[in-house]
Amino acid sequence: MSKEFEERRPNIKRYKRIYPHAGSKDYKLGKEMAEIAIERYHILKACLQQKYEMIHNTTPSMGTQIFPVQQLDFSAYKDFKIKRTQSMKFRPLEDGTIDASRITESHRNMKDDWKQSEGDILYSAVTLDFFLPILNYNSISGTTGSEEWDKLFGTLKEKNYPADIIPCMVRVFLSIYLAEFDLGHYL
Protein backbone atom coordinates (compact mmCIF):
# COMPACT_ATOMS: atom_id res chain seq x y z
CA MET A 1 0.00 0.00 0.00
CA SER A 2 1.39 3.41 -0.90
CA LYS A 3 2.24 5.95 1.76
CA GLU A 4 -0.10 8.45 0.11
CA PHE A 5 -2.99 6.00 0.39
CA GLU A 6 -2.11 5.27 4.03
CA GLU A 7 -2.30 8.97 4.84
CA ARG A 8 -5.71 9.40 3.18
CA ARG A 9 -7.31 6.24 4.55
CA PRO A 10 -5.27 4.97 7.51
CA ASN A 11 -7.96 2.73 9.03
CA ILE A 12 -8.81 0.63 5.97
CA LYS A 13 -7.41 -2.87 5.89
CA ARG A 14 -6.72 -4.49 2.54
CA TYR A 15 -8.59 -7.66 3.44
CA LYS A 16 -9.95 -9.51 6.38
CA ARG A 17 -9.89 -13.28 6.56
CA ILE A 18 -13.32 -14.53 7.53
CA TYR A 19 -13.89 -18.11 8.61
CA PRO A 20 -17.33 -19.62 8.10
CA HIS A 21 -19.32 -20.68 11.13
CA ALA A 22 -19.52 -24.41 11.77
CA GLY A 23 -22.72 -25.79 10.30
CA SER A 24 -23.13 -23.01 7.72
CA LYS A 25 -23.41 -23.76 4.00
CA ASP A 26 -19.98 -22.23 3.40
CA TYR A 27 -18.45 -24.39 6.11
CA LYS A 28 -20.01 -27.55 4.67
CA LEU A 29 -18.89 -26.61 1.17
CA GLY A 30 -15.37 -25.94 2.39
CA LYS A 31 -15.21 -29.24 4.21
CA GLU A 32 -16.48 -31.08 1.13
CA MET A 33 -13.91 -29.35 -1.10
CA ALA A 34 -11.11 -30.22 1.33
CA GLU A 35 -12.17 -33.86 1.45
CA ILE A 36 -12.29 -34.07 -2.36
CA ALA A 37 -8.86 -32.45 -2.64
CA ILE A 38 -7.43 -34.90 -0.09
CA GLU A 39 -8.86 -37.89 -1.96
CA ARG A 40 -7.44 -36.63 -5.24
CA TYR A 41 -4.07 -35.93 -3.64
CA HIS A 42 -3.98 -39.58 -2.61
CA ILE A 43 -4.98 -40.71 -6.11
CA LEU A 44 -2.03 -38.72 -7.46
CA LYS A 45 0.29 -40.11 -4.80
CA ALA A 46 -0.86 -43.71 -5.41
CA CYS A 47 -0.30 -43.26 -9.13
CA LEU A 48 3.20 -41.86 -8.64
CA GLN A 49 4.06 -44.73 -6.29
CA GLN A 50 2.56 -47.15 -8.85
CA LYS A 51 0.30 -48.66 -6.22
CA TYR A 52 -2.45 -49.65 -8.60
CA GLU A 53 -3.31 -52.53 -10.83
CA MET A 54 -4.90 -52.26 -14.25
CA ILE A 55 -7.89 -54.55 -14.61
CA HIS A 56 -8.58 -55.37 -18.26
CA ASN A 57 -11.87 -55.98 -20.03
CA THR A 58 -14.14 -54.80 -17.27
CA THR A 59 -17.85 -54.49 -17.88
CA PRO A 60 -18.69 -50.91 -18.81
CA SER A 61 -20.97 -49.11 -16.39
CA MET A 62 -23.37 -48.07 -19.18
CA GLY A 63 -23.70 -51.60 -20.57
CA THR A 64 -23.66 -50.32 -24.14
CA GLN A 65 -19.91 -50.24 -24.77
CA ILE A 66 -18.63 -52.90 -27.15
CA PHE A 67 -14.93 -52.04 -26.90
CA PRO A 68 -12.70 -53.37 -24.13
CA VAL A 69 -12.28 -51.04 -21.19
CA GLN A 70 -10.05 -51.03 -18.14
CA GLN A 71 -10.12 -49.86 -14.55
CA LEU A 72 -7.41 -48.99 -12.07
CA ASP A 73 -7.66 -50.77 -8.72
CA PHE A 74 -5.89 -48.92 -5.89
CA SER A 75 -6.20 -51.61 -3.20
CA ALA A 76 -2.38 -51.79 -2.96
CA TYR A 77 -2.34 -48.20 -1.68
CA LYS A 78 -2.79 -48.25 2.11
CA ASP A 79 -2.51 -44.56 3.15
CA PHE A 80 -6.11 -43.75 2.16
CA LYS A 81 -9.01 -45.78 0.79
CA ILE A 82 -9.38 -45.02 -2.91
CA LYS A 83 -12.22 -46.41 -4.99
CA ARG A 84 -11.53 -48.23 -8.22
CA THR A 85 -11.75 -45.95 -11.27
CA GLN A 86 -14.66 -45.97 -13.67
CA SER A 87 -14.32 -48.13 -16.75
CA MET A 88 -12.14 -46.21 -19.20
CA LYS A 89 -10.46 -46.85 -22.54
CA PHE A 90 -6.80 -46.67 -21.49
CA ARG A 91 -5.67 -48.86 -24.41
CA PRO A 92 -1.99 -49.13 -23.48
CA LEU A 93 0.36 -50.37 -26.19
CA GLU A 94 2.19 -53.70 -25.82
CA ASP A 95 5.12 -52.06 -24.00
CA GLY A 96 2.79 -50.28 -21.55
CA THR A 97 3.16 -46.84 -23.12
CA ILE A 98 0.24 -44.74 -24.35
CA ASP A 99 0.10 -43.51 -27.94
CA ALA A 100 1.72 -40.05 -28.16
CA SER A 101 -1.28 -38.56 -29.97
CA ARG A 102 -3.55 -39.55 -27.07
CA ILE A 103 -1.14 -37.96 -24.57
CA THR A 104 -1.10 -34.73 -26.60
CA GLU A 105 -4.88 -34.79 -26.85
CA SER A 106 -5.21 -35.31 -23.07
CA HIS A 107 -3.06 -32.29 -22.29
CA ARG A 108 -4.95 -30.21 -24.86
CA ASN A 109 -8.27 -31.28 -23.33
CA MET A 110 -7.10 -30.27 -19.86
CA LYS A 111 -5.87 -26.92 -21.14
CA ASP A 112 -9.06 -26.21 -23.11
CA ASP A 113 -11.50 -27.20 -20.35
CA TRP A 114 -11.69 -24.21 -18.01
CA LYS A 115 -12.49 -26.34 -14.96
CA GLN A 116 -9.49 -28.59 -15.50
CA SER A 117 -7.31 -25.63 -16.44
CA GLU A 118 -8.20 -23.66 -13.29
CA GLY A 119 -8.38 -26.66 -10.98
CA ASP A 120 -5.10 -27.99 -12.32
CA ILE A 121 -3.86 -31.49 -11.65
CA LEU A 122 -6.00 -32.37 -8.62
CA TYR A 123 -9.22 -31.40 -10.36
CA SER A 124 -8.30 -33.69 -13.25
CA ALA A 125 -7.20 -36.59 -11.03
CA VAL A 126 -10.30 -38.68 -11.78
CA THR A 127 -10.41 -38.19 -15.56
CA LEU A 128 -9.07 -40.17 -18.49
CA ASP A 129 -7.08 -37.06 -19.45
CA PHE A 130 -5.18 -37.39 -16.16
CA PHE A 131 -4.67 -41.15 -16.18
CA LEU A 132 -3.27 -41.45 -19.72
CA PRO A 133 -0.21 -39.24 -19.04
CA ILE A 134 0.25 -40.95 -15.65
CA LEU A 135 0.22 -44.42 -17.21
CA ASN A 136 2.74 -43.25 -19.79
CA TYR A 137 4.91 -41.72 -17.03
CA ASN A 138 4.97 -45.06 -15.23
CA SER A 139 5.85 -46.95 -18.43
CA ILE A 140 9.27 -47.34 -20.06
CA SER A 141 8.64 -43.92 -21.67
CA GLY A 142 9.02 -42.18 -18.28
CA THR A 143 7.25 -38.98 -19.34
CA THR A 144 3.78 -37.50 -19.04
CA GLY A 145 4.23 -35.55 -22.24
CA SER A 146 4.45 -32.33 -20.19
CA GLU A 147 7.74 -30.94 -18.90
CA GLU A 148 5.82 -29.16 -16.13
CA TRP A 149 4.20 -32.39 -14.90
CA ASP A 150 7.43 -34.37 -15.20
CA LYS A 151 9.25 -31.75 -13.11
CA LEU A 152 6.44 -31.64 -10.52
CA PHE A 153 6.36 -35.44 -10.23
CA GLY A 154 10.13 -35.61 -9.84
CA THR A 155 9.97 -33.01 -7.06
CA LEU A 156 7.08 -34.79 -5.34
CA LYS A 157 8.97 -38.09 -5.32
CA GLU A 158 12.21 -36.45 -4.21
CA LYS A 159 10.56 -34.58 -1.31
CA ASN A 160 8.30 -37.42 -0.13
CA TYR A 161 5.02 -36.14 -1.65
CA PRO A 162 4.37 -32.83 0.15
CA ALA A 163 0.80 -31.74 -0.61
CA ASP A 164 1.57 -28.03 -0.40
CA ILE A 165 3.55 -27.94 -3.66
CA ILE A 166 0.78 -29.40 -5.81
CA PRO A 167 -0.88 -26.68 -7.89
CA CYS A 168 -4.62 -26.68 -7.42
CA MET A 169 -7.40 -24.17 -6.99
CA VAL A 170 -8.05 -25.22 -3.41
CA ARG A 171 -4.44 -25.27 -2.20
CA VAL A 172 -4.79 -21.96 -0.36
CA PHE A 173 -8.20 -23.03 0.85
CA LEU A 174 -6.77 -26.30 2.16
CA SER A 175 -4.00 -24.61 4.10
CA ILE A 176 -6.59 -22.45 5.89
CA TYR A 177 -9.14 -25.14 6.67
CA LEU A 178 -7.30 -28.45 7.12
CA ALA A 179 -6.60 -27.87 10.76
CA GLU A 180 -10.13 -26.62 11.41
CA PHE A 181 -11.67 -29.73 9.83
CA ASP A 182 -9.13 -31.95 11.58
CA LEU A 183 -8.19 -33.55 8.25
CA GLY A 184 -4.47 -32.76 8.34
CA HIS A 185 -3.62 -36.31 9.36
CA TYR A 186 -4.55 -37.48 5.83
CA LEU A 187 -1.64 -35.55 4.30
Please give a structural write-up:
There is one protein chain. This protein is mainly alpha-helical. It has one domain (24-186). It contains 7 helices and 2 strands. The protein has helices spanning 3-8, 25-48, 100-112, 114-124, 128-137, 147-158, 171-181; strands spanning 53-56, 70-73. It has a two-stranded antiparallel sheet. Helix 2 crosses helix 7, helix 3 (100-112) packs across helix 4 (114-124) and helix 3 crosses helix 5. The longest helix has 24 residues, at 25-48. The model has no long low-confidence stretch (mean pLDDT 82).
Strands ordered across the widest β-sheet: 1-2
The helix content, as a percent range, equals 40-55%
Distance between the termini: 36 Å
Q: Major sheet, described briefly?
A: 2 strands, antiparallel
Low-pLDDT residue intervals, each spanning 5 or more residues? none
H and E order: HHEEHHHHH
- Beta percentage is under 5%
Query: Which class of secondary structure composition applies to the elements?
Result: mainly alpha
Mean pLDDT: 82
The total of beta strands comes to 2
What is the overall shape? globular
Q: Count up the helices.
A: 7
User: Gyration radius, to the nearest Å?
Assistant: 20 Å
Q: What count of domains describes the coordinates? A: 1
